[in-house]
């Protein structure tokens, strides 16, 4: 079976070496030595000035929305993983959807202003598949209307835009270290901000609001990463160059083999140093996509319809139609992408796709 992704497992001895440190310290959580070391190493790897690592990539969205969303209307994208929209509703805020750009697949910045009302408090946009949103235009709109900007950068490990980490953009940026993501800690995530005051708020919010053992800065929740998770991160991190190079090879293969007369690949925004995190292909029709899925399934190849459905169609939200997102969501899927896919497997996948669409 070939799945859309395969979790990277570091050599078990290297994981054991890290996990043994937790045994030696007799310390499992509350920002122990491993969590602190992983934060330092990630800061260097990602070239960011600060990071707070967390137990998953969804709770940073909830914390950011809690601090910045003010229970208002949050402008967001219908084309993303459900975590963002769900977090908005979960925080008792209201998602207001803005359709996406048909090629970059990120929120269409030219349509944001029309969706702003006097209840709008923030924009929550996703850098889809590691492809940056138009961050400058969004920043200008946010300044003009006094809105906060939160980026769901779950897919963006290592992405740079204009030579700067993509996590540096927006008031808060978040990442996921879930087992299916480029860099992982099993479950895990991170939040980033360059605002000192906001960083303080994010930090205490992720640890019950504590200010020492007996006092509290304010309201908080538990989003702390454990030493067990950090051990995995410390064992995976040294392999990132290998992982990214391996994925680049797979993507170059697809780029060379697939028949793009009837298919479209993702258009990466200019000035982006991308991370090869996903390989979405867009078919001309949903019928074609379903036919390809069926064919691949016969060879036990399981791509994923990612993202489907468009989030504005979730039954717990209300929205006007989002024609571009709904259309793309019905015609897009992510092809298998992981380090040790063989040329033979890639050839088979590409041939099946090319023959089913012709
Ligand atoms: C994976 C993902 C999340 C959620 O992250 P978890 O670590 O699984 O909580 C949020 N947004 C997007 C776009 C994702 O792909």
Automatic annotation (TrEMBL):
Catalytic residues (positions): 181 (proton acceptor)
> Quick check: keyword Transferase in the entry?
yes
Which key words are in the record? Aminotransferase, Pyridoxal phosphate, Transferase
What biological-process terms (Gene Ontology) are attached?
polysaccharide biosynthetic process
Family according to the record: Belongs to the DegT/DnrJ/EryC1 family.
Q: Which residues cross the membrane?
A: none
**What protein am I looking at?**
DegT/DnrJ/EryC1/StrS family aminotransferase
Molecular function in Gene Ontology: pyridoxal phosphate binding; transaminase activity
* Keyword Transferase attached: yes
Q: Which residues carry this modification: N6-(pyridoxal phosphate)lysine?
A: 181
Q: What Pfam families does its record include?
A: DegT_DnrJ_EryC1
